[in-house]
Amino acid sequence: MASTSSRRRERLRLLDAGAGVGALTAAWVSEICSRSFRPKEIRLTAYELDEALLPALRQTLTACEKACAAVGIHCKWEVRLTDFIESAVDILDAGLFQTEPAKFDVAILNPPYKKFRSESRTRQVLRRLDIETSNLYTAFLALAVMLLDKGGELIAITPRSFCNGPYFRPFRKHFLQNVNLTRLHVFESRGHAFRDDDVLQENLILHAVKGMPQQTLVSISESHTPDDPTERRRSVPFQRVVRPDDSESFIHLVPDENGHALAETMETLPFTLDALGLAVSTGRVVDFRARRWLRAETSSETVPLIYPTHFENGLVRWPKANYKKPNAILHNAESATLMVPAGVYVLVRRFSAKEERRRVVAAIFDPEYVPCNVVGFENHVNYFHERGAPLDRTLAWGLSMFLNCTSLDTYFRQFNGHTQVNATDLRSLRYPTRAALTEMGRRAGDMLPSQNDIDALVAEILEIQ
């Protein structure tokens, strides 16, 4: 991270928000001291809220001061024992009453990862600066960018979840409007870099420069873990990283030529989901909110309740005995709005387990196997439908084949590096024609083929469509 810093000035001001014991600051100072061109002065500002870490942090900063003095750099440092978000918003919101803008040349961050609710004080404080986000780490990034001087660098290691999904859309747009994105490095192993924080998603290091025009090429690199000595790296046109016509501003990470070729293939498919006349929604039953209607066993007053655990070899198998999740939901006037009419649907799991082989897993719900008049899909399931109505059975099997193919899953991982598969992600994909999907379904029959057969059939149909 420190080696990516390229800011050259006589006086450099560094921000380390959420500094911990000062590891990132120390790495940056060591890097600067080792260079032939060195600044005359360095000012270090470290924010840290945990008092238990302060003795070690001050010891680190004192060592930084001594290292700078040894090579002729004057170093001043300051520890701010306060909430970074509250402090940064107060500084940035001071406006005309601020005598000297508190700007930095470099911000180097390993920000905290924690969600917060829309009614929380943190969310309300951030709205003073029109920052809309639901996680501490993106709040730290947004504020750090705002605290940088023009041409200032942002260097951060974060979870990858901001690259896609509806919750981070406002952050992505704000971020990309204000920086020149120069480099992204991805760690493929979910949970490794942040294993102590139970972050079950891929992690990345980003480098960006504030207030400069977006450069044509972005450096994309990838390694398995932070300790992996090998990495793949290539320069990718920015328009391939963030598609110009993408209203969601998803960030795609394509580290090699094979990935680039696959992206070209998947993005030139002819139809959006809407153009096919299809839609995808998230299951309406949020189990902890509907707890009073849930039942472990079926009865004449209940209807099937489908969880991802009911997926089995490409079909929904229901009920499932001896499992902790309920199999049924009471069907009455109050719960009726949570149901959908019985019929054929394609379901996709919203969450994948840590280090699971596949990210996108689809299964067919068919009332021939699960007899019912209405059905409840739990919130951990996405379901494809024909604008509210069930799907044609053959079309549904073809759509399931497409969603379960390896090419789709590999492409999906270029912009999704965490455990969730959101309906927004599925809407962002491009799809084959209805005729191609129907032909896949006809060839599949009523049973999901082996993975090799799925991949071969999808490749054959897409090549000739």
Give a quick rundown of the structure.
The chain is an alpha/beta fold and 465 residues long. The longest helix has 17 residues. About 1% of the residues have low confidence.
Description:
- The chain has two domains: 2-265, Rossmann fold (3-Layer(aba) Sandwich); 279-460, Adenine-n6-DNA-methyltransferase TaqI, Chain A, domain 2 (Alpha-Beta Complex).
- 28% of the residues lie in helices and 24% in strands.
- The chain contains 13 helices and 22 strands.
- It has helices spanning 23-33, 54-70, 84-92, 121-126, 136-147, 169-178, 238-241, 257-267, 393-403, 406-412, 423-428, 434-444, 451-464, and strands spanning 11-17, 41-47, 74-80, 104-109, 148-159, 179-187, 203-210, 217-223, 232-237, 271-272, 279-282, 294-295, 302-306, 311-312, 315-316, 328-330, 339-341, 345-349, 362-365, 374-377, 381-385, 430-431.
- A nine-stranded mixed beta sheet has the order 3-2-1-4-5-7-6-8-9.
- A hairpin with an 8-residue loop joins strand 8 (217-223) and strand 9.
- It is elongated and about 80 Å long.
- The model is unreliable at 192-197 (pLDDT under 50).
